[in-house]
UniProtKB/TrEMBL annotation:
Source organism superkingdom: Bacteria
Annotated PANTHER family: PTHR39159, UPF0374 PROTEIN YGAC
Key word Ribonucleoprotein present: no
GO MF assignments: hydrolase activity
DUF402 domain residues: 39-156
The name this protein goes by in its record: DUF402 domain-containing protein
Keyword vocabulary terms for this entry: Hydrolase
Gene3D superfamilies: FomD-like
Amino acid sequence: MTLTAGGDVQVTLTKAGRTKVRYPATVVGDDGVRVVVRAPWGRPTVRDFGFVRFEPGDVFTEHYWRDRWYAVKEVRAADGTVKGWYCDVTRPAEVGPDGIVIEDLDLDLWQSADGSTVLRLDEDEFRRSGIEDRDPVAAARARQALDALEEQARSGRLCAL
């Protein structure tokens, strides 16, 4: 199924078989492999990670692939200023009549707008999740995806999406 640009879609992020978050987004494009959507920060409050603050008015342009083990989200402030790129390591996106569903595999990466900061996140959470014992193939793919994201960030290719 290919989504139509300008249409509305639900994005669902699952973790360990349960829905973690669900939110509406607008389809920017879908080439059959990569789906791009845009969505506002969905909470009425600020979430401060220490290295970035997500706050009301922020807009996320989110890139999901049907054949890659990650999603890349460009984060812009309400005034249009790029804050950076937040990347989730996930199983490949499932796109269907109910929207886009992605399974979070715990690992994340952040790149600041100026490229000076690249952070690998939640590796301890990934280890504690048990995925390496439960699904070693998926765990290996997740680690490879995080390595690929870091290489793209450090080479300046992440921001070129």
